[in-house]
Amino acid sequence: MPFFVYGTLRPGEPNHDLFLRGRTRSEEPGRMRGLVLYAGPGYPYAVDEPDGAVCGEIVTARPGAYEELLAELDELEEYVPGDATSLYERVARDAVRADGVTVVRTWVYVAAPAVAARLRSGGELIEDGDWRRQRSS
């Protein structure tokens, strides 16, 4: 299953080069509805919000690289299934390709419930859902 990335794993960002460069079959712009972004310390958090939308890329791993890449991204995002101290959760969600029509089922890392609650009560919302644009302004 592809990944939807919206922060430091996007092309041109530092973790893209460290984790994805040379290991992907395709990378294409996309959007994911039902999420909003909050600015974090150096990286964003996606949080469930029915009316939100987030900009990012749909990244498909090369055959043979998927399992190792999945494990490395889980470690990068400090995601451990069932661990209440995880910062993120990896969930399956639909992303929409740039054509606005084609839907792709993807993995996406969203803020874990405790982190999401803190962000909703006092985090810095990225209004347009585009972390890259927010960082450059």
Automatic annotation (TrEMBL):
Keywords: Transferase
Domain Gamma-glutamylcyclotransferase AIG2-like, residue spans: 3-133
Record GO terms (molecular function): transferase activity
Pfam families linked: GGACT (PF06094)
The keyword Transferase belongs to this UniProt entry's keyword annotation: yes
Gene3D superfamilies: Gamma-glutamyl cyclotransferase-like
SUPFAM superfamilies, alphabetized: Gamma-glutamyl cyclotransferase-like
Protein name: Gamma-glutamylcyclotransferase
Gene source species: Streptomyces triticiradicis
Lineage: Bacteria, Bacillati, Actinomycetota, Actinomycetes, Kitasatosporales
